[in-house]
Records
---
Amino acid sequence: IITYFKNNFNLPSTKSILFKIRNSIKELNSTDRLDVWQQIDFYKNKKQYDTALDIVNNAINACDDNKQKVSLLLKKAQLYSIIGKNEDTLFSYENLISFCESIDFSSFELSLYCVEYAKLLRLTGQLAESDKYLQKAMLLNPSNKEAKKLTNLYLFNRNTDIENDDKLTLKTSPFSLLTF
């Protein structure tokens, strides 16, 4: 029966199957073959953020591809944000934006990074710097709706006073801030 199957169905030999299995195991055990993104996510999901950050930093230093490097810089900023390291998050976004500008990266994506950075600056009380990055985002991508919305919201908040906790006095018309 075995000879019949081998002759009629072109089955691989036991040696070739074992050879393929050994090669597959070698690939799985090789750290050179492991996907960096899977490693980062693995350690992030296990809440081993320092290990994930080490992998990101090593990958950034070894990376020759600018698009890949941008993604890694963004991941670094996101990891710092997850663990609540605000200063490191801000610094990472600064580095990300600076790197993107140095390589003439997509103005659309750079605009999005500027908006995220502006939100973080606003949360830390750096209002003027936040406004600067929102303006930068709108210059890079005039159709960035979130940058427009946040700029209008911040202008509205800056131009209003609350008197006696129940009366809102507007220094400018709220309708002048609307964009269509």
---
Amino acid sequence: LFRSSVSAVQAKLNMFTAYSEEVVGRKAASEQLKPLLEQITAAGCPPMRQFSLNNRSGMITERFVELEKQGVEYLEHLHEELKRQQLMDEMRLEFAKRSESLNRWMEELIDTLTTAAAVDSISEAQQMLEQLEATDAEVAAHEAEQVKAITDLSHEALRLHGIFSVAVFLRGFPIDVSV
């Protein structure tokens, strides 16, 4: 509906509150029409003119009812959009945290793997090599878990934006999206 930010939706809610207050004031003023119509009738207004004035008064009342109904619907949409935007903000924060965590982990892993090791014997070198090979599966599993979590968040964010297919979203971009 709005595709904006939390603050933009809150601004719209504030504007709607001010608008609603003005409508209430105008509705109160329109309710004074009925006594005026009765005075006009008592003063001897022609029947056709009375009919016309009563119709106009009825139309004004109907429009206020319709306006209230539309206002309730609009307010519901604003609240739904506010919840959606708040969820998107939470997801952006979670995405940033997970991305930073993955980045930090990758940097630590690169530092660990690029550190020079001094060995005194072939058996010591073989032992270090076995330790590195043993951590391969652990590293792959951790990396896959972190990447999947970030990918899942990305897909959920796209879904919240009404984009249900990453391929459609990325159409025309030379990016491999296979996961």
